[in-house]
Specification:
With 506 residues, the protein is α/β, with parallel strands linked by helices. The protein has 4 domains: 179 residues, 3-Layer(aba) Sandwich (Rossmann fold), CATH 3.40.50.720; 100 residues, N-(1-d-carboxylethyl)-l-norvaline Dehydrogenase, domain 2 (Orthogonal Bundle); 103 residues, Rossmann fold (3-Layer(aba) Sandwich); 81 residues, Orthogonal Bundle (N-(1-d-carboxylethyl)-l-norvaline Dehydrogenase, domain 2), CATH 1.10.1040.50. The chain has 20 helices and 15 strands. An 8-stranded mixed β-sheet has the order 3-2-1-4-5-6-7-8, with helices on both faces. Strand 12, helix 14 and strand 13 form a beta-alpha-beta unit. Helix 10 crosses helix 11, helix 16 crosses helix 19 and helix 18 crosses helix 19. The protein is elongated, with a radius of gyration of 26 Å.
């Protein structure tokens, strides 16, 4: 274990790391090129910990002991006796390399040098050092004491014992250590590329508005925040820069293609909460969320026909229609007056209508991924009679649950986003970036998803996810953005859980 920890950089991350390890019983020294930054950081931590005492989360004695373990360092030379140095300075490769070269000349031969970098290559940082085997990534998330995850990043030449020591330190401090190789975005920023990136694609195609996409993903899969709310919270300039960085580091792999619209909004200064306007407007930091549009009530004088033979889905739909005074036809083919409800997976309504030779003016799609108790999602297509769309909304929303109507798209909104998340998670497992269990826990801890990628697949069905991806790829002319991961395809073909390793004895 480490006896003395030095932290370089007293910003939000550095002060958070100092508080975390001091509270865990480690002796910590905090240094910054600006001496006043260290004083500000220690004062900030003191105030934060005093609030914990006031709330009964720690005693006065624990407070005093924790504060005593956080000491200022007035010069880098004062860190010479540390056996772990954690760098948390600006995200600039040259600056980090220069710092590590200087630190290497200060500390003993067994000391570990760790970088809190979120986007730079640990291998490249270590390349400037004489002993790159003692350099690793130790990437925390803000706020450090509350976000119970740290990525322990193994550079190409990092020694195994260095990773082991950092893992034990993280566990002692109550954080989950996600060990990952040095790849673009490491684990969390890599796994998180699907959520917002696919939402931006949906927005750019005019399928739904930002507000609609957020509502659908909150009320369907159960995300705490919609992707556009999240962009506004973190700042679109930061999120877009990460998207561009990951896309470039993976040599323009189409899975990670950023949005031109996001770039335009960044140029316009529409960054989110910090600029007062992003995808939403803000007043004193509070989001001004537009009211959902209200529809005029209409008479429902048509029967409905549902393409799905799934008894559970038919029962739910029949009950909803019955409550609105409408009938669900039992026949395999629709009558001449029926409004046809289609339930495509990864296919747009137009393609399904053409494939089944159905009357386009009477066809509207219903997303089977919707949580019918919270929000139902319908998908129109260009030939739909608007009067029949209004009847469908009335019949399916008669009990007061909101009905969202979007434009034609392969995979609606939830299907596309969830399938993209699952597919990217499977690629991470395929590439050996993380074990499936590590992937699941890291994504939930750091990104706040209701489920990890493989958990989403288990909930919705891995075979259905594969069908959605195949439908998306077909609809977009074989676009490689939606190519199914071999990890996903093989396990679906063999009827195995997605967490199944490649080696039976692994």
């Amino acid at each position: 274990m480490f006896s003395r920890i030095g932290i370089i950089g007293a910003g939000a991350m550095g002060r958070g790391i100092a508080q975390l390890f001091a509270a865990a019983g480690q002796q910590v020294w905090l240094y910054d090129a600006r001496p006043e930054a260290v004083a500000e950081a220690l004062a900030f931590n003191r105030e934060l910990l005093e609030r914990n005492v006031a709330k009964g989360r720690m005693t006065a004695e624990q407070l005093a002991a924790t504060l005593a373990r956080m000491q200022p360092a007035h010069a880098l030379a004062e860190l010479a006796g540390c056996d772990l140095l954690i760098e948390a300075i600006v995200e600039n490769l040259e600056a980090k390399q220069a710092l590590f070269v200087e630190l290497e000349g200060l500390v003993g031969a067994e000391a570990v040098l760790a970088s809190n970098t979120s986007s730079l290559s640990v291998t490249c940082i270590a390349a400037a050092c004489r002993r790159p085997e003692r350099v690793a990534g130790f990437h925390f998330f803000n706020p450090v004491p509350l976000m119970k995850l740290v990525e322990v990043v193994r550079g190409e030449r990092t020694a195994a014992q260095v990773i082991e020591r950092l893992v034990r330190l993280a566990e002692q401090a109550g954080h989950f250590p996600a060990v990952t190789p040095d790849t673009p975005g490491f684990l969390v920023n890599h796994a998180g590329r699907a959520y917002g990136t696919e939402a931006l694609r949906i927005l750019s195609e005019g399928i739904a508005s930002a507000e609609q996409i957020d509502r659908i993903l909150r009320d369907g899969p159960g995300f705490r925040m919609g992707p556009f709310e999240l962009f506004d919270l973190t700042g679109l300039d930061i999120s877009h820069a990460v998207m561009e960085s990951v896309h470039g580091q993976f040599y323009q792999d189409p899975r990670y293609t950023p949005s031109y619209q996001a770039a335009q909004r960044v140029a316009a200064g529409l960054l989110g909460r910090k600029s007062g306007q992003g995808y939403y407007r803000y007043d004193n930091g509070q989001q001004i969320r537009p009211a959902e549009p209200r529809r005029e009530a209409v008479a429902v004088d048509r029967p409905f026909w549902l393409d799905s033979r799934d008894p559970e889905l038919r029962g739910r739909v029949a009950a909803l229609l019955h409550g609105a005074g409408a009938l669900l036809e039992p026949d395999a083919e629709p009558s001449a007056r029926a409004i046809c409800l289609l339930t495509p997976l990864g296919e747009d309504a137009s393609s399904m209508i053409a494939r089944l030779a159905l009357p386009a003016a009477r066809c509207i799609a219903l997303d089977p991924f919707s949580d019918f108790d919270r929000r139902r999602v319908l998908m129109r297509q260009p030939a739909l009679d608007p009067a029949l769309e209004a009847q469908a909304c009335q019949a399916l929303g008669g009990d007061g649950v909101p009905v969202e109507v979007i434009n034609d798209s392969p995979g609606f909104v939830s299907q596309r986003v969830i399938a993209s998340i699952v597919n990217l998670g499977c690629e991470i497992a395929q590439k050996g970036i993380a074990e499936p269990q590590t992937l699941e826990r890291a994504v939930q801890l750091a990104l706040g998803y209701p489920k990890g990628p493989l958990g989403f697949a288990a909930h919705y069905g891995a075979a259905r996810i594969l069908t959605i991806l195949q439908g998306l790829q077909l609809c977009y002319g074989g676009e490689p953005r939606y190519r199914p991961s071999p990890w996903l395809r093989r396990r679906v073909q063999l009827g195995l859980p997605l967490a199944t390793p490649d080696r039976p004895d692994a």
